[in-house]
Amino acid sequence: AQKITQTQPGMFVQEKEAVTLDCTYDTSDPSYGLFWYKQPSSGEMIFLIYQGSYDQQNATEGRYSLNFQKARKSANLVISASQLGDSAMYFCALTGNQFYFGTGTSLTVIP
Amino acid sequence: GAGVSQSPSNKVTEKGKDVELRCDPISGHTALYWYRQRLGQGLEFLIYFQGNSAPDKSGLPSDRFSAERTGESVSTLTIQRTQQEDSAVYLCASSLAFFGGAGADTDTQYFGPGTRLTVL
Fold this sequence. Notes:
B: mainly beta, six-stranded mixed sheet, four-stranded antiparallel sheet
């Protein structure tokens, strides 16, 4: 079975600080992809970052980086220099033979 | 270019009625996905299409749910005899292809704005 686990239902971070959102996964597929999406209160799903299972380096996209530890099956999202606009739900997702989204982490950035 | 579009944006229906939800994927995207998101919850995967074929329908909640895709483009999710527990936002996404781990360009799913379904 495949699944995604996000253990932090809610997180708070001070503006301009960095924050790490945790994600662990379980899959038996040799090839898979890991995603992070942001969902603001408006409801749209915004793609942030992608990590392929065969990628040797951690993915980075601007202030977002993915701390990929394949042996531990973790794919944590790191947001540097948090901004007020980062307040949203964040979902980790796994794609392989099936598709799974985590239950999400609600991030609140405090001024 | 144009993103994923869904219609209607909102649908209110009475229990027992049938509803059709439409999704227009990004042009050229061969893979299309349907998800359900209940209020305050994560995304529940329903079904995906590779081209016009849906290899795995096991994510559909019941036999009242069906989906089709024609011309490797538009997809319709149909819910028959709607129940109150069907109330949710139904999200559609598309990706260039479905290979799982082939790379960001291929795998990344781009989402539509969703259809909010309310069953009274």
